[in-house]
Design goal:
Blueprint (H helix, E strand, L loop, with lengths): L3 E6 L19 E2 L2 E2 L2 H9 L4 E6 L4 H8 L8 E6 L9 H4 L1 H4 L4 E5 L2 E4 L3 H15 L1 E7 L7 E5 L5 E6 L8 E2 L3 E4 L3 H5 L12 H10 L3 E5 L5 E4 L3 H18 L6 H7 L5 H10 L4 H12 L1
Parallel strand pairs: 1-4, 1-6, 4-5, 8-13
Antiparallel strand pairs: 2-3, 6-12, 7-14, 8-11, 8-12, 9-10
């Protein structure tokens, strides 16, 4: 079955207040585009056409106004509401009907990845999911004790995950992009709330690990990851995106260009999108891209 995509975008953005009082956190600008464009581009570059946005109730109308049905970019967008914030793994309860037995990639709306080889890693993780049942990234960080840390055996296979250990057994953590087969919703139903009352994605990952269905895709240190949960992190990510785009003459987060390169829309379709945005640098970049290609 075709892999489907989920973007969990139901966060209230309390650490970004007051900026998120009048605006949805996932739609806040990260440099020159909404932060949710970045994970959306990832899903499209993985060849995924069917994508579910999980949002909070107050944001549903603005999401539908922003993205519509997805038909303009050759995609199929669906929407569901997370009425109570019950954790990341709750996405698989909410998405069960949408998935209808399909494998999936779950992206967090506030996680941004940068790096020339990033999409190669993402595609490799997708293949590993198809072969094994589930896969996650292993991201090297300087402060792993602040996160859930991956434990490896001598062959660099994942054998355990430890939450915020005082003595980390590696420098690898699991960032916000998860690849699971059709059993994710079934496994999620067996989870119990953690001490903070949430269904933890780490616990779902541990089920795949215990079932010997989990593969690991280790990123190298050329990949930069940002969790844009607070104002400082959002600003730093925007600065990194600006610098990366200038140095590499690319437009990161353009899911419209990604849809064109995947063959979901044609040149005329992309040109129509560019025309509607032509007064912005973003629209002008798409126009220039079309001229070069």
């Amino acid at each position: 079955m075709k892999t489907k995509g989920i973007i969990l975008a139901a966060g209230k953005g309390t650490r970004l207040m007051p900026a998120t009082i009048p605006a949805s956190k996932p739609l806040l600008p990260l440099y020159d585009k909404p932060m949710i464009y970045y994970p959306l581009e990832t899903l499209v570059r993985l060849g995924i056409k069917d994508i579910l946005f999980i949002v909070q109730e107050d944001d549903l109308s603005i999401f539908k106004k922003t993205f519509g049905t997805g038909s303009v970019v050759g995609l199929n967008f669906s929407y569901e509401v997370q009425k109570i914030q019950r954790g990341i793994a709750d996405a698989y309860f909410i998405a069960e009907k949408f998935l209808d037995g399909s494998p999936s990639v779950l992206a967090l709306s506030d996680n941004v990845f940068l790096g020339k080889n990033y999409f190669d890693y993402a595609n490799s993780a997708l293949l590993k999911m198809q072969e094994n049942g589930g896969s996650v990234f292993g991201l090297p960080v300087p402060d792993p004790e602040k996160f859930g840390v991956i434990e490896l055996d001598n062959n660099k296979n994942i054998v355990g995950i430890e939450e915020k250990p005082s003595k980390p057994k590696s420098n690898l953590i699991i960032p916000g992009l998860y690849f699971f087969d059709s059993e994710a919703s079934k496994f999620a139903k067996t989870l119990k709330p953690s001490n903070r009352g949430e269904l933890e994605i780490t616990d779902l990952i541990k089920i795949y690990l215990s079932e010997k269905k989990l593969a690991l895709e280790i990123l190298d240190d050329s990949i930069v990851w940002h969790d844009t949960g607070n104002a400082k992190a959002l600003l730093e990510a925007a600065q990194k995106v600006k610098l990366y785009e200038q140095n590499n003459d690319v437009k990161i987060g353009s899911y419209e260009i990604a849809a064109y390169e995947q063959g979901f829309i044609n040149k005329s379709n992309l040109n129509d999108i560019a025309e509607k945005l032509i007064k912005s640098d973003y629209g002008q970049y798409i126009k220039e891209y079309l001229t070069r290609n």
